[in-house]
Amino acid sequence: MMRCCPLCVEPTTAPYHRDRRRDYYQCATCKLVFVPPEQHLSAAAEKAEYDKHQNSPHDTGYRRFLGRLFTPLLAKLEPNARGLDFGSGPGPTLSVMFAEQGHPMAIYDLFYAPDASVLTQIYDFITATEVVEHLAQPGKVLTQLADQLSPGGYLGLMTKRVTSPEAFARWHYISDPTHISFFSEETFRWWAQKNSLVVEFPGPDTVILHKTLT
Q: What is the annotated signal peptide range for this record (predicted)?
């Protein structure tokens, strides 16, 4: 059965890992590791998993966790830069943190804030924290977000990265049934080059992509 990569749509993929519940394939082109569509949760089952999350802007530990992206991205923004938090979850927090620093943010979440009108606007920066690993069509979504950036804008992502097949086999991250797309540094570099973005890695699970002015 031919399995096209959900990031770059290339057909050359190969088995990468298998556990008791799922299969994982890797794309030969962009190196994305992914779970095949027939093994994804239903939308209802996926939302039931997210409903268990207890994130809140009043949780200092959660703020500290988000700080891994918030701090390096904040340092790059012009005053009053306007942002979008994509995949804001049941307890939007990053948007509150940026608003406290004078950067108003719209929010979007398929399940908790499904106002699609915010996806038709242009932003100075967009964040997606712990989102891309949940995407069935990461290529389509990331291209859409890049298109929503103004020239000079930033796309900030948080997701844990694939390092090796050996580490992958022991990785707690794959035990979450909502995690279906797994990026490596090589994958992000490939995608950035393909979309004419400059990529940097402020930390082991953070990525900032810059839409340059030229």
A: none
Angle at 128 between CA 124 and CA 134, to 5 degrees: 150
Residue 41 DSSP symbol: P
What architecture is the 13-210 domain classified under in CATH?
A: 3-Layer(aba) Sandwich (3.40)
pTM of the model: 0.97
Distant-in-sequence, close-in-space partners of 36: CB < 8 Å, separation ≥ 6: 3, 23, 25
Residues facing residue 203 across a β-bridge: 206
* Distances from the Cα of 171 to the Cα of 42, 55, 154, 174, 178, angstroms: 23, 23, 29, 6, 15
- Going from N- to C-terminal start, the domains of the chain cover 13-210
Distance (Å, whole) CA 180 – CA 133: 6
The C-alpha atoms of residue 86 and residue 107 are separated, in whole angstroms, by 6
Mean pLDDT over the full length of the chain: 96
The whole-angstrom separation of Cα 203 and Cα 214 is 26
pLDDT at 1: 66
